[in-house]
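Hi again,

Forgot to attach this to my earlier email, sorry! This is the prediction with magnesium ion bound. I've pasted everything inline since the attachment limit keeps bouncing my files.
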Amino acid sequence: LTGARREASATELVERLLAGERLALARLISLVERDAPGARQALQCLYPSTGRARLVGITGPPGSGKSTLTTGLAQALRAREQRVGIVAIDPTSPYTGGAVLGDRVRMMALYADPHVFIRSMATRGVLGGLARHTLDVVQILDAFGKDVILVETVGVGQDEVEIARAADTTLVVGVPNLGDGIQAIKAGILEIADILVVNKADLPGAARLVTELRTMLHLSPPSPAAWVPPIQETVATDGRGIDDLLTQIDRHGAYLLASGAGAERRAGRAQRQVRAIVDDRLQRRVGEVLARADWAARFARIAARAEDPYAVAEDLVSEVLHDGD
Ligand SMILES: Nc1nc2c(ncn2[C@@H]2O[C@H](COP(=O)(O)OP(=O)(O)OP(=O)(O)O)[C@@H](O)[C@H]2O)c(=O)[nH]1
Ligand SMILES: [Mg+2]
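Structure tokens for the complex follow:
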């Protein structure tokens, strides 16, 4: 009975969300983040209403100015009357405090705007994959009617790279004189950059970083070669370069459309999403099967060399696959 009631409420939330109710949006996101009952059904209901928003990933080393840049981009997009969603995968989110006053003032203006929706997601305590949850939240914002969704991640972990890979356009943000800045950019995230942003261009060393990045692009040309990532200098704190950055994002969007690379990218995203859902369900199933006490004895037998782990794993797999739900 409670199950049925919950289902009805998820369906009702979906209806209210599609009617444009912000409160329903926030509640549905919470539902999905908690993996609450009805969440999957709600996402399924929403799916036909998604696919219109442009997903822009903003990644880079800690403190490079991603949040400030995201704020600036959101403001510039609002000036073009675009509806904006922001998802910050951020252990120390300046959106929720901790930011210096100047940053906070800029963000408060965004918070007051009814056409901007900001969600910070904690990296810890997330059940299942962070990447999967982020994509779910993005889908909800998409269905709600956001034109552009900006996703900020610290470009360090595998989850973050995974999220960046899911974007239509990925910005990799570097800053001059970070010491290991160029290293951080090189370490696997340069290859996912559609646009390289040299932020804090007001600081000395910006021109040098631009030169270094240009050299790196020459040494390892991107594939597909049809798109060479432009390098855009910005000063996120005063808005310099933001409009040009937006122009580059538009250029990349046009390239994705004209070349067919966009459709390919989205199919790749769909494949990873399906795999993530399957992985998640299998993990749960394995957990459920393992929770039965009889496995403990078998593990002890493996330790005593009375059985081998391969045979036990085989039995576990067949139980996971054949045991009814
Ligand atoms: N000088 C200068 N400072 C900047 C610029 N952009 C951002 N900052 C400052 O750099 C600091 C970090 O900015 P954030 O936007 O929080 O950086 P972040 O990359 O989001 O940081 P994390 O989310 O913690 O990784 C803040 O104090 C900003 O005011 C810039 O263009 N020039
Ligand atoms: Mg940040």
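The first helix runs from residue 2 to 18. The CA atoms of residues 69 and 233 lie 11 Å apart.

That should be everything now.

G.
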